[in-house]
Structure formats: C-alpha cells, structure tokens
Design a protein that fits this description.
Blueprint lengths: L1 H20 L3 H26 L2 H30 L2
Helix pairs in contact: 1-2, 2-3
C-alpha cells in the first residue's frame, strides 16, 4: 500500500510542473483542480491505511468542496475578462 501512496505522490507532481510551465490562467486552474482531486484521494488512502475515519472525512470534504470553490473562482475570472 505504501507503493500506491508513493505513486500518487509522484502523480501529484505532474500537474505542478504543468502549472509552473504554462502561462494561461485556465490551464493553471485545471492543473490546480487536478492537484486538489489527487490530494484528496491521497488523504483517503492514508486514512484507510491508518484506519482513521476522521482523516477520511477531511479527504471527502476536500474532494466535494475543494473543486466547488475553484469553479466559483473560474466564474469570477470569466466575468472579469468579459468586463461585466
């Protein structure tokens, strides 16, 4: 199981590289959404390994609410680009 956690950690670094390399705001937001999802899955795996449901609840909250805040930010940025 620790191999799976290590693989998820390495997979987490791929969007970080993409976000640092690209200058487009939308591509950066997509990379950050991917990071949030992978982080929450990593937290869920750690909670299963430790048999700790409180850590699992934090992972579920990040998974369900983290991307909602990112989508609200994307909507605000789109409105600012339109000039409304």
């Amino acid at each position: 199981m620790t191999l799976a956690v290590l693989a998820l950690t390495v997979a987490l670094l791929i969007p970080l590289y993409g976000a640092a390399k690209d200058q487009d705001v939308w591509q950066k937001m997509l990379a950050f959404a991917s990071i949030a999802t992978k982080t929450s899955i990593l937290i869920l795996m750690v909670s299963v390994l430790r048999d700790d449901w409180m850590i699992g609840m934090v992972g579920v909250l990040i998974l369900s609410l983290g991307n909602a805040g990112l989508m609200l930010l994307a909507h605000v940025l789109r409105r600012m680009d339109e000039g409304i």
